[in-house]
């Protein structure tokens, strides 16, 4: 519960910016005489800055999390996210402080990125390391579902205020969702204060297997293949997650098929179903293995991506609603559901926080961080293909993800305690 609610708060704050980046920030934090498309692109660039900061945060918090424990790091990341979100809600706009507005926004987004970089792996590991091995995939997915839960809350609250008259929404309505995060943060901090330290870490610490060196160096030298495969396995599903949450909402609004509030509500509905789809696919991986479920997910993604975009381009409210349902609970969740256990089981306990943070967050930069900018560029190509260009790029990412999963060894059923050597790692004794 602590991992789930903590991740929910983190991603509520992080994804709230993503939702506002296409709808609000281009109009408020840049010169009003600037071309609207350029303003949106710059908002997405600031969004990318947060994603670029995530691997740095993952390495930073992973370093201390692998040396001193998971609990304290998670308390700090949650506090950082809450403070930044409240500050964004209170920020003056470009009309008030000029160029300082987007500069401050960049700095705040980087701090958010650092916090989320340490959050995802820590929360996932706290859940996975508290349960028996046969339930690790499902437990890890509960923390992972904090992402879509945060998305539900972010889009729901922002969507409710988006129904205000235009002037009221742009003046104060968009600020309230950011300020409300303070309530969620207080609840999350209380739960994180109460939670016990990871049993796996405590056991490794008691046996003297927690190293005093630099975890990032060990990860890159002991687990080069695990790191590479983890990055590529994450990129495809994370691209789809960010595409739906950030790019497709303003896209369908601009087509005139739905208004701003309707688009946010459709995303909210699909994210709600997404909450249950992720643990469903994770539970399947506990029974049949990580690789079979994720490879099946790759096949599902490739088969459904063109039909999904056809639905988005239909101009019909209900078909667009169906498109969001195809994209989030089916395409994205089918590969993403087992990802927490898939990554955690590649690393030993004393290296796991850093290893999972680094792989997931670099995959996040490659997939989610570039998604809105890549989609904007692909849509602008002068070849008449429109969203088909985005579909082709997504298929490329999914093929890379599928190959990475295929080349990884199955981890279900292996004892990944500190004393065991994880799959795909470099055997240093053999090298000597």
Automatic annotation (TrEMBL):
<keyword id="KW-1003">Cell membrane</keyword>
<keyword id="KW-0813">Transport</keyword>
<feature type="transmembrane region" description="Helical">
    <location>
        <begin position="356"/>
        <end position="378"/>
    </location>
</feature>
<dbReference type="Pfam" id="PF07690">
    <property type="entry name" value="MFS_1"/>
</dbReference>
<dbReference type="InterPro" id="IPR011701">
    <property type="entry name" value="MFS"/>
</dbReference>
<feature type="transmembrane region" description="Helical">
    <location>
        <begin position="12"/>
        <end position="29"/>
    </location>
</feature>
<feature type="transmembrane region" description="Helical">
    <location>
        <begin position="390"/>
        <end position="407"/>
    </location>
</feature>
<feature type="transmembrane region" description="Helical">
    <location>
        <begin position="293"/>
        <end position="312"/>
    </location>
</feature>
<keyword id="KW-0472">Membrane</keyword>
<feature type="domain" description="Major facilitator superfamily (MFS) profile">
    <location>
        <begin position="1"/>
        <end position="416"/>
    </location>
</feature>
<feature type="transmembrane region" description="Helical">
    <location>
        <begin position="41"/>
        <end position="61"/>
    </location>
</feature>
<dbReference type="InterPro" id="IPR020846">
    <property type="entry name" value="MFS_dom"/>
</dbReference>
<feature type="transmembrane region" description="Helical">
    <location>
        <begin position="73"/>
        <end position="91"/>
    </location>
</feature>
<keyword id="KW-1133">Transmembrane helix</keyword>
<feature type="transmembrane region" description="Helical">
    <location>
        <begin position="174"/>
        <end position="191"/>
    </location>
</feature>
<feature type="transmembrane region" description="Helical">
    <location>
        <begin position="138"/>
        <end position="162"/>
    </location>
</feature>
<protein>
    <submittedName>
        <fullName>MFS family permease</fullName>
    </submittedName>
</protein>
<keyword id="KW-0812">Transmembrane</keyword>
<feature type="transmembrane region" description="Helical">
    <location>
        <begin position="263"/>
        <end position="284"/>
    </location>
</feature>
<feature type="transmembrane region" description="Helical">
    <location>
        <begin position="318"/>
        <end position="344"/>
    </location>
</feature>
<feature type="transmembrane region" description="Helical">
    <location>
        <begin position="228"/>
        <end position="251"/>
    </location>
</feature>
<dbReference type="InterPro" id="IPR036259">
    <property type="entry name" value="MFS_trans_sf"/>
</dbReference>
<feature type="transmembrane region" description="Helical">
    <location>
        <begin position="97"/>
        <end position="117"/>
    </location>
</feature>
<dbReference type="Pfam" id="PF00083">
    <property type="entry name" value="Sugar_tr"/>
</dbReference>
<dbReference type="InterPro" id="IPR005828">
    <property type="entry name" value="MFS_sugar_transport-like"/>
</dbReference>
């Amino acid at each position: 519960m602590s991992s789930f609610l903590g991740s929910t708060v983190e991603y509520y704050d992080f994804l709230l910016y993503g939702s506002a980046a296409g709808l609000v920030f281009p109009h408020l934090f840049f010169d009003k005489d600037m071309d609207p498309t350029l303003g949106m692109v710059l908002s997405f660039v600031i969004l990318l800055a947060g994603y670029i900061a995530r691997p740095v945060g993952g390495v930073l918090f992973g370093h201390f999390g692998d040396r001193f424990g998971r609990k304290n790091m998670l308390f700090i990341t949650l506090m950082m996210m809450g403070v930044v979100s409240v500050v964004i809600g209170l920020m003056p706009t470009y009309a008030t402080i000029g160029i300082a507005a987007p500069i401050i926004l960049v700095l705040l987004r980087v701090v958010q990125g650092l916090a989320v970089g340490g959050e995802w792996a820590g929360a996932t590991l706290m859940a996975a390391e508290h349960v028996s091995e046969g339930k690790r995939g499902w437990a890890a997915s509960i923390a992972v579902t904090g992402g879509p839960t945060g998305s539900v809350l972010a889009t729901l609250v922002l969507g409710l205020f988006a129904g205000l008259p235009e002037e009221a929404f742009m003046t104060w309505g968009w600020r309230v969702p950011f300020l409300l995060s303070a309530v969620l943060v207080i609840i999350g901090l209380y739960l994180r204060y109460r939670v016990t330290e990871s049993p796996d870490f405590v056991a490794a610490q008691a046996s003297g297997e927690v190293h005093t060196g630099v975890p990032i160096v060990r990860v890159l030298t002991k687990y080069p293949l695990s790191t590479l495969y983890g990055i590529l396995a994450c990129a495809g599903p994370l691209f789809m997650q960010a595409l739906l949450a950030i790019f497709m909402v303003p896209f369908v609004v601009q087509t005139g098929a739905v208004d701003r509030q309707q688009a946010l509500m459709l995303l909210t509905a699909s994210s709600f179903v997404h909450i249950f789809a992720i643990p469903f696919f994770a539970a399947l991986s506990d029974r049949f293995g990580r690789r079979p479920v994720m490879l099946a997910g790759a096949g599902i993604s490739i088969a459904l991506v063109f039909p999904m975009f056809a639905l988005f381009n239909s101009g019909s409210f209900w078909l667009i609603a169906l498109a969001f349902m195809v994209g989030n609970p089916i395409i994205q969740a089918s590969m993403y559901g087992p990802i927490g256990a898939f990554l955690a089981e590649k690393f030993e306990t004393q290296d796991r926080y850093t290893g999972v943070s680094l792989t997931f967050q670099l995959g996040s930069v490659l997939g989610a961080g570039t998604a809105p900018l890549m989609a904007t560029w692909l849509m602008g190509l002068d070849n008449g293909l429109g969203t088909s260009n985005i579909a082709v790029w997504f298929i490329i990412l999914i093929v890379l993800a599928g190959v990475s999963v295929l080349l990884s060894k199955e981890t279900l059923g292996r004892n990944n305690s500190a004393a065991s050597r994880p799959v795909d790692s470099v055997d240093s004794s053999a090298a000597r």
